[in-house]
Amino acid sequence: MPQITRRSLAAATAVLLGASALTACGSDSGDEAGAASGSVELTYWAWAPGMDKVAALWNAKHPDIEVTVQKQASGDDLVTKIITAAKAHKGPDLVQAEYQALPTLVSNDALADIAAEVEGVERHFAPGVWQQTTFGGDAVYALPQDSGPLMFFYREDLFRQYGLTVPTTWDEFAETARALKKKAPEKALTTFSANDSGLFAGLSQQAGAAWWTFEGDTWKVGIDDAATRKVTDFWGGLVAEGAIDNQPMYTPAWNKALNTGEQIAWVSAVWAPGTLTTAAPDTRGKWAMAPLPQWNRGENATGSWGGSSTAVTSDSKHKAAAARFATWLNTDPEALAALVRESGIYPAATAAQTSGALAKAPDYFANQPDFYPKAAEIAKTTAPAAWGPNVNVAYTAFKDEFGKAAKARTAPAFGAALAKVQETTVTDLGKQGFEVAK
User: What digits encode the pLDDT tens for the residues 123-144?
Assistant: First the structure.
């Protein structure tokens, strides 16, 4: 199979434009050699806790294919390490990779196309989640492992106390924020935070944004597109008028606001119960979860915040065996239950989202027994995401520029911040040697 390069990424992946992708090239001689010797040894780089315990379940039942998990750091550090290993042809067989990192890894020839080895697996996942591992084409560069569909979390008791209705549209969300300020000026519905770019990316995704697209040999950056401008204007406007707070998340002050009821709602993802357990321990059993507000009444879409996949590297000499393990890890009921139990993930496989370890609501949300059934319905509506080869640069620019805008508390500052993120991302792509549409 031809190597995927920066310039051939369009033909190889058909990034979000529906063009034909390279077909898979099947099992290589390394798999045949491993089978002939009776044993295959695979190495898996992953950061999720307890992944070695999950792999041990596989090893116990598959003595012919032994998987060794090597714990890694997450985020950009791991991406850099994978690319460095690929250039030296010393990569592992499998890697845990965040969805937004996949285009970067593919453009650096680090991942293998496993479409032939995982045929039929697509049915286990929501379309919007599956698309993040295929880029809308025929090639498959990873299997979805966990996902983070966005939802609306709110203090059920305080909504009752202040006579507030759970918003179903973003217009209603804004009115709810204003109504709370009138009734309790010392409180805020929520805050706009720039210290985690993933939330803003997910909100833009729900609005229909496509931050990176590819046509021919040229990338197009659409961070400053109409959908993202709508999201920017909405949140920037609420900050400017003082309807919501402007403080960053994950700080002691933010934790206190959640714990004391100074902030009574949070737009977050399905993993929020774990964060709230630590941030707001005194409010256990007082929160509820609802679908994300929609831009237009009657719509039904959400974005995602976080999530990762299992990919087979281009260095693996046992591609078929590695793909077989990746399929088991992300679709087998026993494996999925172990991932929830040992690694604390929300599985991407739809069947696992209401069974096994997720049959019972999180302890923090014991007052909402249908937490996971409701979450599973929301997860099915995850909108497609459009990632590119320099997500890390865009995310860093977002934190810098939107952090300044949040402090300035003016609508123009938010608009200028979005334009700057666009400019920074485009400039960086050009410096890396990609062709970029002006």
Answer: 999 999 999 999 888 999 999 9
Q: Which of 349, 344, 418 is nearest to 380 (CA)?
A: 349
Share of the chain above pLDDT 70, in %: 91
Sequence-distant (6+) residues with CB within 8 A of 212 are 15, 16, 103, 219, 220, 221, 222, 386, 387, 388, 389
pLDDT digits (tens, 9 = 90+) for 46-78: 999 999 999 999 999 999 999 999 999 888 889
Please give the pLDDT value at position 38: 57
Q: Report the relative pairing of strands 94-98 and 304-312 from DSSP bridges.
A: antiparallel
Residue 42, classified by CB atoms within 10 Å of its CB into exposed (0-12), middle (13-18) or buried (19+), is buried
Q: How confident is the model at residue 408 (pLDDT cuts 50, 70, 90)?
A: very high
CA angle 341, 270, 235 (to 5 degrees): 155
Strand partners, 147: 307
pLDDT at 1: 27
Of 148, 135, 242, residue with least CA distance to 203? 148
Strand 40-46 and strand 143-155: pairing? Answer: unpaired
**92 to each of 49, 71, 185, 241, 355, how far by Cα in Å?**
18, 12, 55, 52, 32
* Amino acid symbol at 244: I
- The residue to which tokens 């596989």 are assigned: 58
- Measure Cα distances from 290 to 194, 328, 391 in Å: 23, 32, 29
